[in-house]
């Protein structure tokens, strides 16, 4: 691993990384990560109530899209700016933005105000994710970082358990606005803790900011997210004769091309293309891309399946997803401990991707009347596979790059995974909804021939079906509708299996670099080991 970039002189004396200092900083990061992870599960539970009250049901896709777009856009920015100027102030800004977004979200009186507040949350949430991972690499050597994966994995598992319960209770009790406002005191505490505990050096970097690259990255990312969210934003399918859609497609492709050219010529590029000359970075980034496409696609439709097939409430469907979180926590903690003890990590993404592929393939057998015990085992396997991969590839890429580019490499890896998740979820949803439309057309004909509805098909609309409405349907119509939904979903999982197996093939080429015994800040001359 070559260190070719001259270190920037820190403005303050060297940080002494004693165990106490490391755990104080780690505690500040945990508080902030808990803020971000808890928010997603709380708000998703309350979303039907929120958009209904603010008259935004037809355009509720914007609530999700604004958040995803903001996160994707700021990921490379936080990574690069942290490398240039230090991570303390960007991290504090991220916490402050997320807290302000939560405050404004609870105060929103109109749907556009809610969308703007979610975008502001995303501007902070993207920084919390990226900077937390980069700061851990700054203060903990790669050889010891595995044991910190356990608490981080457990944190996300805990938030996944608490989130649906707390979101449901707040929505039914004090009101949905508290699903946002609850973040405010947590955010203030996280900000205070980070202010005093996050004693990281700042730099006076003389390197230029790649403003042109930032502009084309924002345009490219926005275009990709909008294209993949086209239907969820209220449009009736992809009508390629639409001038707006064609303009968006052409503009996105042009922005991507301009971004690549800009990054080739820029003296200090936002995402240096030379990183792709590093085989470990390239392989782990591609694994993250395909895993994002497969993982998030699989997870996106499962709560809806549970609500449709079992009549579970939104909160109940969240609880039925707990086996996935349990599997993820178990393997993330176990692999982290094993990596710290052995110093070997290549085997974990290889095994993890095989297990993930097996879990997705098993899910092609789901039925509307299946046992929830069997379903729990399916998603436990899926979660166990993902837990072996996600944090391990981040560790691998951080260990293989120059310590001066930890933030840039970490953010680039996460950025491509986020893009993969966005594209993969859109493609999976398109396959599913196409099948579902065909199934409902056949169901309408079946109901008409059975005398259960008028022969012209009036009286049945799949588009207007909600889990609550399906639960009230009489038999045999209820069973037919659930079967139509399940028969559309189950085969769609087969489209994800080749993606995950492609990730497995890539993992075979992952070069195992000896884990460094030196923390990033120590390697850059900004700290000394205590």
From TrEMBL:
The chain crosses the membrane at residues 21-42, 62-79, 91-111, 123-140, 152-170, 176-198, 210-230, 242-262, 283-306, 318-340, 347-366, 372-397, 418-437, 492-510. One of its GO terms (molecular function) is transmembrane transporter activity. InterPro entries: EmrB-like (IPR004638), MFS (IPR011701), MFS_dom (IPR020846), MFS_trans_sf (IPR036259), Tet-R_TetA/multi-R_MdtG-like (IPR001958). It is a multi-pass membrane protein. Pfam families: MFS_1 (PF07690). GO terms for cellular component: plasma membrane. The keyword Cell membrane applies. Residues 25-515 form the Major facilitator superfamily (MFS) profile domain. CDD domains: MFS_Azr1_MDR_like (cd17502). It comes from the Bacteria. It is found in: Cell membrane. Keywords: Cell membrane, Membrane, Transmembrane, Transmembrane helix, Transport. Belongs to the major facilitator superfamily. TCR/Tet family. NCBIfam families: efflux_EmrB. This is MFS transporter.
């Amino acid at each position: 691993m070559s260190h070719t970039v001259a270190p920037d002189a820190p403005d303050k004396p060297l940080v002494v990384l004693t165990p106490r200092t490391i755990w104080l900083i780690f505690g500040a990061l945990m508080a902030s990560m808990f803020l971000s992870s808890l928010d997603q599960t709380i708000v998703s539970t309350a979303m039907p109530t929120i958009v209904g009250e603010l008259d935004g049901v037809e355009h509720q896709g914007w609530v999700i899209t604004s958040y995803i777009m903001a996160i994707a856009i700021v990921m490379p920015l936080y990574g690069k700016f942290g490398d240039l100027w230090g991570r303390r102030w960007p991290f504090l800004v991220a916490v402050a933005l997320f807290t302000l977004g939560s405050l404004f979200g609870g105060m929103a009186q109109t749907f556009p105000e809610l969308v703007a507040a979610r975008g502001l949350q995303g501007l902070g949430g993207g920084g919390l994710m990226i900077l937390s991972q980069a700061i851990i690499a700054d203060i903990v050597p790669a050889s010891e970082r595995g044991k910190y994966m356990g608490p981080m994995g457990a944190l996300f598992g805990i938030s996944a358990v608490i989130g649906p319960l707390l979101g449901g209770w707040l929505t039914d009790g004090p009101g949905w606005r508290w699903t946002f406002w609850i973040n405010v005191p947590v955010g203030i505490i996280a900000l205070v803790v980070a202010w005093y505990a996050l004693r990281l050096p700042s730099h006076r970097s003389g390197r230029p900011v790649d403003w042109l690259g930032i502009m084309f990255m924002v345009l490219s990312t926005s275009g990709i997210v909008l294209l993949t969210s086209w239907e969820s934003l209220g449009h009736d399918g992809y009508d390629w004769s639409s001038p707006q859609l064609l303009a968006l497609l052409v503009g996105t492709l042009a922005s991507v091309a301009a971004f690549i050219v800009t990054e080739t010529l820029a003296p200090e590029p936002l995402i240096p293309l030379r990183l792709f000359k590093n085989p470990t970075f390239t392989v782990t980034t591609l694994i993250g891309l395909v895993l994002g496409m497969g993982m998030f696609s699989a997870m996106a439709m499962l709560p809806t399946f549970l609500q449709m097939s079992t009549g579970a409430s939104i909160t109940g469907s969240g609880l039925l997803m707990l086996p996935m979180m349990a599997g993820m926590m178990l393997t993330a903690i176990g692999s982290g401990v094993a990596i710290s003890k052995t110093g070997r990590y290549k085997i974990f993404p290889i095994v993890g991707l095989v297990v993930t592929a097996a879990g997705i393939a098993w899910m092609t057998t789901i039925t509307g009347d299946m046992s929830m015990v069997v379903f729990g085992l399916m998603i436990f396997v899926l979660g166990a596979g993902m837990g072996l991969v996600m944090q391990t590839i981040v560790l691998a890429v951080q260990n293989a790059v120059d310590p001066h580019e930890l933030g840039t490499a970490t953010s680039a890896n996460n950025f491509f995974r986020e893009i993969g998740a966005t594209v993969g979820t859109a493609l999976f949803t398109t396959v599913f909804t196409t099948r579902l439309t065909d199934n409902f057309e056949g169901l309408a004909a079946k109901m008409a021939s059975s005398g259960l509805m008028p022969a012209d098909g009036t009286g049945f609309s799949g588009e207007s079906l909600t889990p609550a409405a399906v639960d009230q349907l009489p038999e045999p119509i209820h069973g037919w509708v659930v079967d139509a939904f399940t028969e559309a979903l189950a085969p769609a999982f087969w489209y994800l299996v080749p993606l995950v197996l492609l990730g497995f093939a890539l993992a075979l080429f992952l070069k195992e670099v000896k884990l460094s015994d030196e923390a990033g800040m120590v390697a850059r001359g900004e700290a000394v080991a205590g």
